[in-house]
Design a protein that fits this description.
By secondary structure, this protein is of the alpha/beta class. It has five helices and four strands. α2 (41-51) runs parallel beside α4 (72-93). The longest helix has 22 residues, at 72-93. The two termini are 26 Å apart. Bound molecules: NADP nicotinamide-adenine-dinucleotide phosphate.
């Protein structure tokens, strides 16, 4: 792969692994809480417009079941509206978007492995906001 990748959440567990996996021909522009408030949609939009990446990898999320129960609005902005904005921007720019969801979109009641086509049945705010349909 070559080109410019905007890596949101580059200091997190998944972001660190993604950064290590991208080859030397990729220019990585990273963002984390020290450089961006990703719950501020205008700030995210301005960053995307400035970088004009070939691909966006979104490893930034408002994490934690308890956190999302306490701050559902922030959870919605960060885990639904922000990825939705990334999808819209990527679509308009013709760039690729990579986004990670969570197994928490499922209730855990199924007695078998889940597949991508399984219908989400979240049981808490965290699972609800990770169930993205955009
Ligand atoms: N880890 C796993 O095993 C796993 C499994 C399945 C899916 N996922 C998904 O992968 C994604 C990343 O998970 P993770 O485990 O890597 O999370 P993590 O370790 O908590 O990392 C989160 C990253 O997002 C950044 N971030 C958080 N809030 C931000 C904000 N308001 N503005 C800007 N940056 C912000 C953090 O920056 P700071 O470092 O500055 O705080 C950090 O770089 C999530 O969508 C998660 O559901 C992870």
């Amino acid at each position: 792969m070559r080109g410019t990748v905007l890596l949101l959440g580059d200091t997190g567990k998944v972001g660190t692994a993604v950064k290590a996996a991208l080859g030397p021909r990729v220019t990585v522009v990273g963002a984390n809480t020290r450089t961006l408030d990703a719950s501020d949609l205008s700030a995210v939009e301005a960053l995307v417009d400035q970088v004009r990446p070939d691909a966006i990898v979104n490893c930034a999320a408002f994490m934690g079941v308890d956190n999302c129960e306490k701050e559902p609005e922030r959870a919605f902005r960060m885990n639904v509206m922000m990825p939705r904005l990334l999808a819209q921007k990527s679509d308009r720019m013709g760039s690729t978007l990579v986004h990670f969801s969570s197994e928490s979109v499922f209730s855990g009641k199924k007695r078998d492995f889940h597949g991508e086509s399984d219908t989400p049945d979240p049981i808490n705010v965290y699972g609800l906001v990770r169930r993205q349909n955009f």
